[in-house]
Amino acid sequence: MATIVNTTEEEPMLAVVRSTAELAWADAGAEVADPEVARLCAEAQQHVLAARWLDMANLMLANADLLLLAPRLSDKAAADLECVLTVICNLVTKAGSEDEALEIAKLICAKLTHQPGEKPTLRIKVLFSLYNLLPSLSGKALVYRKALELAAAAGKAAADCVVPTFKNIDAFVAYWGIGKPEQRDLFLAVTRILKDQKGMTKEYFKFLNKYLATFDGSADEADAIGAAKEEAAAAIIEFVKSSDLYQCDLLDMPAVAQLEKDEKYQPVYELLKIFLTLRLDSYLAFQTANSSLLQGYGLVHEECITKMRLMSLLDLSGHCSGEIPYSAITKALEINDDEVEYWIVKAISSKILDCKVDQLNQLVIVSRHTARVFGMPQWQSLRSKLGVWRGNIANAINTIQANKVTEDGGQGMQGLMIR
């Protein structure tokens, strides 16, 4: 394919208009094409002289599909296409106001997100360039959101371009200063990209939590929170499936709590409650009555039993006074005596339990355990412990200071006696 961008001294914007116009009218013959190209170039010249940058953007984007939808491009032609789009994006820096720049950005985003399956990585690259050129924070948030929409629609290749930016999402949200509704849309867009990414289940669960946490249960959110039921159920299933997650705050979220009264999702909510507040026997009873539901969500019964045994062990640790008899473990986990140490080792290797085993007395001495739910009671307990530790440290400091004063006084008296 021939070079698109004119390499003469012509103004880059006019060169883009001329090149795309010539491409658009290439099959019409010189008698028809030349006057049309001249007309478009003259119109572009007028826009430049009058600083009508929004009109200029419309004109430059009019034939952009001819380039974006071209079936195959050589490396040189692809570079030329990127150059054309960059020149168009640069219009936002010429705009007379942030509002005008935002309107230009919206036009560019609409063009780049149309038919996203064609050259998606190039489109996303251009959107990121537009992001960097925009002066307004609201404009940057809009462009980033459009890049996520494009990535979600275009598939894995495009998703790979945006996933590395997700680690900075919290910084972006703070920088843009966007409100809860905008954050909600952003987190939901991220979850839709991560859902199909292999090896990113933790990140997917993390952003599902971020999305669900934006709902505070207020009356003015009734419609919005009702639309979050599917994501709430998805978060529950991801938690139950994961062999790395043993703590979550889903039960405290209004978006999740609404499932308790929903005919379709009530069993899913009950399953979450079992994993976070009950023991293995409750899960087994639930599975007997809901085996088809579990299979429908892709849950493997044996894997659920394994996780539920570890969760039951955590529950025992939370209710004991630091020592758990083997007999209590065998009963709660429904295992034989000779299996107790296996499950203790498994809990330690999963980093959810720190303990010592007293084989002689058949006891497990717990020094630390993961709390399945870390809500207000856990915060209050932590505050109480920190208060006790602070008091102990203060007492130790006072004792040391008192001993030092006594020691210094004794040395002073000894010096007087010597003199």
Describe the structure.
- Helix 6 packs antiparallel against helix 7.
- The N terminus is likely disordered.
- This protein has 419 residues and is mainly α.
- It is elongated.
- The chain has a three-stranded antiparallel sheet.
- Among the domains are: 84 residues, no CATH class; 121 residues; 74 residues, Winged helix-like DNA-binding domain superfamily/Winged helix DNA-binding domain (Arc Repressor Mutant, subunit A, Orthogonal Bundle).
Task: Tag the structure with descriptive keywords.
419 residues, mainly alpha, Arc Repressor Mutant, subunit A, three-stranded antiparallel β-sheet, 22 helices, 67% helix
Helix content: 55-70%
Q: What percentage of the residues does DSSP assign to strands (E)?
A: under 5%
Q: Which sequence of SSEs, written as H and E, runs from N to C?
A: HHHHHHHHHHHHHHHHHHHEHHEEH
Which of globular, elongated, flat, extended, rod-shaped describes the shape? Answer: elongated
Give the spatial strand order of the biggest sheet: 1-3-2
* Category by helix and strand content: mainly alpha
How many beta-strand segments? 3
Oligomer: single chain
